[in-house]
Amino acid sequence: MGMLKCLGITCVTLKVLGLLSSLVALGIPYWYVGDTTTTAGLTGDVKTTIREGLWKKCTDLESPSKSSSFCVGNDVTDVITAIRWLMFVGAGIHGIAVLAAGAAHMEKNSTAFIVAAVHGMISATLHTISAALYATVVRDDIGFELKHLFIGWGLVFVCIVFTILSTSLAFILARMCNKKTVEDSSNDGDDGKGK
Hints:
single chain, alpha+beta, 5-stranded antiparallel sheet, 5 strands, 15% strand, elongated
């Protein structure tokens, strides 16, 4: 198996992993888990933990006799709406990048690798903005610290890392495909002259 083929498979795999982590981050219920607070109750201490994400907010109560969770839909602020849309659009654009990288790998087409790389850069930018918005603006609104950010928010960064790696690889592969095409065309020209 040639180096171009191995790198192409790696590029497509990284893009698919980035898309999957983006979709899981978008759908996962919790991006934030607060500190557990303890209050005195009738039957003993009651521990309360708040979990929140893009879609719902839950309060977990744990007492010596039982545990329960109360969930409601998240209050949809303008920032949460913007983050949702940034994630949706970023995942859609990332999907285009996956398709372009797959086509580029199968056809050894440098233009398709460039399309995959550009779409990957746009997707990484949108995901970075959504993670930054959640970590700064939403944090100020509900008063938590960065240490409370949870798996949904973390998966956005996993997506960003996979996207940056696959985008860099797509640019390298575009250059390699161009170089291979030039070498192949010059070899075809040399064969024609020798006959």
